[in-house]
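We close this part of the discussion by returning to an individual protein. Part of our work consisted of pairing the sequence of a single chain with a tokenised description of its backbone. What the numbers capture is local backbone geometry rather than side-chain detail. The amino acid sequence and the backbone structure tokens for this protein are reproduced below.
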Amino acid sequence: MGSESDRTHMAGKAEKEPLVSICCLTYNHRPYISKALDGFLKQKVSFPYEVLVYDDASTDGTADIVRSYQKRYPHIIKPILQTENQYSRGITNPSGAFNFPRARGKYIAMCEGDDYWTDVEKLQTQVDYMERHPDCSLCFHSARILTVDGSRSDKRMRPYRKERVVLPEEIIDKSCGYPTASMVFRTKMVKSLPSYYTKCPVGDTPLQLMAAASGYGYYLDKDMSVYRVGGASSWTAEGKRGDYEARQKKYREDMRQTYKAFDRATDRRFHQAAKSAARRIWFLTKVNTRHYDAVLSRKYRRYFRELTGRTRFYICLEARLPQIYKGLAVIAERTRRQRK
């Protein structure tokens, strides 16, 4: 947690106008939230920053942990602790509703409560670049992937293979997502949110679209955070409950409307990129729901080639040799259970 002198130094910085507002969303992240907060507090920076935590009425004691950090770092940790879950009331993008409006920094850095930062110079590195390049609207980096049981700690979320400038069209139409905990952007970008942000079911996508509309991106090919997958309260887990087919259908329609609204808002400057991005979402929902007649169609070969070799292999196996696929699936499940 740092020495007493460190805490005093940090508090002194935070009393000044912050240069960066770290926005953290959390819900039932009790096993993880301390690691996220520690990652913020350990940053070695030459500027003051604030940590805006939004807890959506967690039921597992997450809010108590956040309160304990607020008590120790009152000038840095600034939480909103809901007593009634707002997501269930239709507020699906709480960053825009609760964190962005109170951000005082010139920049916003994102990190959800089950992810965490691993490099103490992450913020300084990204802010330095953006200070030197005023036309850069989004700075991001690669991340290590970790499942809740630690089974995939060697995997990475690596959108590109080297450090480089990312053009607006590439931000819009990309085959790999950007780690949320890697994103730093200018606060002015989110002080007035377009309709496609508030209506989109996934908060990261419209942020990236807004960044593409206002500048270019810069990618750092260095793992400076951990992206945790497989949490019980994650968006992916929630989406697979109930009627998964219907949820995927609604998701792709909502995303199609998001890209259409973005296309209108930007006077069709990025029309082809937005159209392709919406088609990719459609394709991926077909992958998720195992509609392999569409997935294997020549019409969508470009998107099929973007899948990993392992995924392509199993899709072809299941589609063409379903009995062999089922046998392998049984063996894999048996092996997984034995390892537990």
In short: The first strand starts at residue 20 and ends at 26. The two ends are 33 Å apart (CA to CA). The chain has two domains: 4-229, 235-339. Residues 1-12, 232-239 have pLDDT under 50 and may be disordered.
